[in-house]
Amino acid sequence: MIQNRKRWCSIAITTSALFTAVPAAADTDLGIAPLVVTTTKMQTPYSVSSDPRQPRIGLPAQDGGAFLKSVPGFSVSRKGGTSGDPELRGLGGSRLNILMNGTQVSGGCSGRMDPPTAYTFPQSYDRIEITKGPQSVRYGTAPAGSVRFERDAPGFTEPDTEGFASFTAGSWRRSDLAAGVTSGNEDGYSRLIGTLSTQDDYRDGDGERVHSAHERWSSHAALGWTPGEDTRVEFAYERSDAEAAYDDRRMDGTDFDRTGYRLSATRQNLADWLPEIELVAFHNDIDHVMDNFRLRDPGMMTMTRRVDRETTGGRLSADFVLAPTTALHAGVDYSESEHGDSGPIMAMGDPIAGANFRDQRTEKTSEFLDVGVFAELEHDLDERRWITFGLRGDYHEAEVFSDDYSNVSAGATDHSSQWSGFGRYEIALQELPLNLYAGLGRSERAPDFWERERDFRLKTETLSQADIGTNISTARLEATLALFHGRYSDYILITDEGASARNIDAITNGVEADLSYALSSALTFNASAAFTRSRNDTDGTPLAQTPPLEGTLALDYEISRHRLGVEWRGVARQHRIDPGNGTIYSVDTTETPGFATLSAYVATRIFEGTRLSVGVDNIGDRRYAEHIQRGSADLGASEERINEPGRAFWANITTEF
User: Fold this and answer.
1) Residue 616 to residue 469: CA distance in whole angstroms
2) How far apart are CA 124 and CA 352, in angstroms?
3) Does residue 512 register a pLDDT over 80?
4) 66, 173, 384, 596: most buried, per Cβ within 10 A?
5) pTM given for the model
6) How far is residue 14 from each of residues 118, 150, 474, measured CA to CA in Å?
7) Among candidates 11, 68, 69, 70, which has minimal Cα distance to 36?
């Protein structure tokens, strides 16, 4: 049976996202789940699941990109203090599909000031699910994989109220607040969640100020109706806004006004062969303003620009039981987005006059339509061997209404069909606490809005990739290893310092690993490593914006109701670069030296359901910069990279009820 196989996986091979090898009695005494010391660990070699409210080493993340940086294989392109662009295995942007509770929230800025993860405050979600590589077709066309920020639907059988609250304070006047409350009974529920995050400009390891201050707030309200234990209907409304200073460009983001609506309906146990069917419809509207006079001195010239993006979509999916050992998940999804742009507006004189630019009307510049049909089949060969297959077909259509797109004029259209699929074989060895898997996947995607701005007539991009991996689980050891080899056909490379784009062929290889080993009942050793090596076959050069080798080593010690730990992170030098080329969010400029940092934390249970964590990051106050970024600090020297924060102190208190 499929369910039996899943039970075996969870018992025999799953690495908990919050695993620490300490006695169960100690966890019960502390009253909280074990701490994540090094990273969010892989559930299997191709998937990760994590609870974003559990304490972990390092300053708690204020957006989705900062959270993903703790997962092996992820890097983040820094712009300032927030809104970094995440990439997995060197692939980001539209190659990494980001979903927020099943809906798409694509950023509005043509310069990627607001990637989708900029609109997520991790602690406002219950789970973060990650699939690495082309190992699923359920969540769109995504060569790198998918990241899903999920809120679980409450299930009340009697009147009750539950909730959480979290507050973080840190260096440079960092202040984060997140709180949520859910009340309901067997007939329905209501949920309210609010977040607020602020920080001043931070300083690097040399004490130099980095233009990076930000302020962001969000709100979420939902009403659910449960007329029966197998039926749920929910309507959700979201509002958020922000302003953020960016050191890597000539303007800051002074308005990220987002409004979102979501309607979902789920019905379970309709028949023995139809255990669940779900319908989701959504609409997101982003109104974004950028300028050079609200958060910085504009000099002689004030500049501003207003853009907006409306996205409407939906998804219908169902689970089917075809046989006792065979299950099918199938569905259709749809999205349509419309872009508007005021164009750049400049004026001489008093910067305050620029405030009137906020009301500048935008003109419709482009429209995109995507429709996909998918099916994913799971079949148990026996209780220790299973196979999974998936097939997806997508239709993409793009139309422009201005002359701002390269190589075409207003009225140009393009449409194409893409095919994606995968097959995976998994086996749990009876003699050893070991799980092995091998997968072969293909993911094809159409050029996105940012790439088409640079060349509207780009070809579709295809990744064919082989993945193999293993998990091992014993009483003292949890370890996961993943290896991959991929070939790109018509990879979309951004060229000319970000101004143009073209198709190339490329090859990528990589490895990811993590482990936790219990040295004793109180002391645990943790480690992780990630390495990607990619090549531009067309030009015979390294593939631009490939992250270097990095790894972590950590010790976690637990005694009574207290825990403490230390983590070392090391990143190698990256000399394999292709200057002037890269991605929609960053380009190669210079080689980057290696570096290492040290962080530490202490955590304790204050009382039942409430925990306090205190930590310090970059203890040595090291001056360093990550390789993945645009590579030029606009407010500094033209070739100077944006440095990471220096020594940072922080404290977090979280309570759940």
Assistant:
1) 34
2) 36
3) yes
4) 66
5) 0.91
6) 30, 20, 11
7) 70
- Cβ neighbours around 113 below 10 Å, total: 26
pLDDT digits (tens, 9 = 90+) for 437-476: 999 999 999 999 999 999 999 999 999 999 999 999 999 9
Give the pLDDT score at 631.
Answer: 64
**Which DSSP string corresponds to 56-108?**
BSSSPPSSHHHHHTTSTTEEEEBSBSS-PEEEETTEEGGGEEEEETTEE----
d(CA 17, CA 35): 9
The candidate with the shortest Cα–Cα distance to 654, out of 239, 263, 321, 167, is 167
Task: Classify residue 10 by burial, with Cβ atoms within 10 Å: 0-12, 13-18, 19+.
Answer: exposed
Task: Using the CB atoms, write b or e for 252-281: b if 16+ within 10 Å.
Answer: bbbbbebebebebbbbeeeeeeebebbbbb
Distance CA 193, CA 219 (A): 6
- The single-letter code of the amino acid at 63 is D
Residues 6+ apart with CB under 8 A from 583: 87, 92, 93, 494, 544, 545
pLDDT, mean over the chain: 89
Kindly give, in sequence order, each residue whose CB lies less than 8 Å from that of residue 141, ignoring residues fewer than 6 positions away.
97, 372, 392, 394, 418, 420, 443, 444, 445, 446
- According to DSSP, residue 648 is labeled E
Going along the chain from its start, the domains and CATH numbers come out as 2-336+366-656 (2.40.170.20)
Which tokens belong to 46? 């191709």
Among 25, 23, 61, 24, smallest CA distance to 40 is for 61
Q: Distance (Å, rounded) from C-alpha 564 to C-alpha 613?
A: 9
Q: How many CB atoms lie within 10 A of CB 155?
A: 12
Confidence of residue 357 (pLDDT cuts 50, 70, 90): low
% of the chain surpassing 90 pLDDT: 78
Bridge partners, residue 31, by sequence: none
Task: Provide the phi-psi class of 58: left if phi over 0, else alpha when psi is between -120 and 50, else beta.
Answer: left
What's the pLDDT tens digit per position in 192-225?
A: 999 999 999 999 999 999 999 999 999 999 999 9
